[in-house]
Amino acid sequence: MLIYRELTDFPKGGAPRKGKAFVVLGSRRVGKTTLLRKMISEPKALWINGELPSTSTLLNFQTQGDIEQLLDQAPMIIIDEAQHVEGIGLKIKMLVDVNEQRPNPVPIFVTGSSSLELAGGVQESAVGRLDKYQLWPISWHEFSDYVGEANALQDLPNRLVYGMYPAVIEDPNNARKTLIDYCDDILFKDIFALADVRRPTPFGHLVSYLAQNVGQIIKYETLASDTGLSRTAVIKYLDLLEQCFIVKRVDAYSKNLANELKKGKKVYFCDLGVRNAVLRNFAPLTSRPNEIGALWENFFFMERYKRHVYDQDFTEMYFWRSTGTNAQEIDFIEIQDGKLTAFEAKYQKDKALMPTQFVRTYGEVPFHVVNMRNGWKFWKKPA
């Protein structure tokens, strides 16, 4: 049985807006191609593999006639792993511009394993021409649908160790090999191929440092000092890791008061299986008491983030921390339509106190303590 993916329902009706390109972005092996094959029933669709050298020739448009010729080849066009195509942003722009003028535009689908900005200025070239969606590792809703809610809750500790990649869930016996192969063959090699990573060893040290300090407040200067990289290189590599869907950065929330942290960031891994593979540590949670809190915080954040992405509710997520010797902290602050909600991630605990300094500054806001027993309530798909 295939795992149901929530993006199957996007766009409604199964086709992009007239003439536009429907773009699915997500990391390698997250299921983008499988998703499109499930969404698309057109047997005569033209599938173009961005990793093949011949694709550059096929998309090397010199005239409008070249574009028309490609659009005439099939009733639907799919460009898979488009980030490998040099200048893909301009090529998509040209394709869509001609397509929109046709009486019957051809549906165009595009997938990418990195933000396509890395592959040639998509933001600048194709703005307004794309319907962009992100596909993440399996969401809690998808996982519960696949294994059943009771089984999902029982398996929760394993998800903090092996993560939520489709292949890991479908073939748990080979989870370690799958994740280590992913890190060795895809995480580093793909990133090195996409960007000019001139110092692979310090880059690896940076990734390991981030894995060891999940949920900790970091500063670029500290990362530079600890990894032997320049501050500029640290920012560049973090941008790269985020654009390739390996990590997510979370900013501090502040009214710019003197007693609130403003510049620090937290970094979470988009999948804990990848994080644990980086460290080569798949020990069960019972033998990792010092890590459970950080792993749970990471897991809660990503599942909550996926929920907001798929619900398209435009919620922003931050953390909050005061300054000083007796600093107070809230794990996550969400802002939706101007309203604040606070979350504290505690794997076992049921209670936590709202920091008094936060209340004095922002007033009383909804405050939830999220643990392994009630976390699912905050990740489930709205009815």
Question: Any overview of this molecule?
Answer:
This protein is α/β, with parallel strands linked by helices. It folds into two domains: 129 residues, Rossmann fold, CATH 3.40.50; 239 residues, no CATH class. It contains 16 helices and twelve strands. The strands form three sheets. The protein has a five-stranded parallel sheet with strand order 2-3-4-1-5, covered by helices on one side. Strand 9 and strand 10 form a beta hairpin. Helix 8 packs across helix 14. The protein is globular and about 70 Å long. The protein starts with 20 loop residues before the first strand and ends in a 13-residue tail after the last strand. The mean pLDDT is 89.
- State the secondary-structure class: alpha/beta
Radius of gyration: 22 Å
Q: Largest sheet at a glance?
A: 5 strands, parallel
Q: Tell me how many strands there are.
A: 12
Please report which band the strand proportion falls in: under 5%, 5-15%, 15-25%, 25-35%, 35-45% or over 45%.
15-25%
Order of helices and strands: EHEHHEHEHEHHHHHHEHHEEHHEEEHE
Oligomer: single chain
Summarize the structure.
The protein is of the alpha/beta class and 383 residues long.
Write the SSE topology.
Blueprint: E1 21-25, H1 32-39, E2 46-49, H2 53-58, H3 64-71, E3 77-80, H4 88-100, E4 108-112, H5 122-125, E5 130-134, H6 140-147, H7 149-154, H8 156-162, H9 166-170, H10 175-194, H11 200-212, E6 217-218, H12 220-227, H13 231-243, E7 247-251, E8 265-269, H14 272-278, H15 292-311, E9 316-321, E10 329-336, E11 339-345, H16 356-362, E12 367-370
Parallel strand pairs: 1-4, 1-5, 2-3, 3-4, 11-12
Antiparallel strand pairs: 6-8, 7-8, 9-10, 10-11
Helix pairs in contact: 3-4, 8-14, 10-14, 12-13
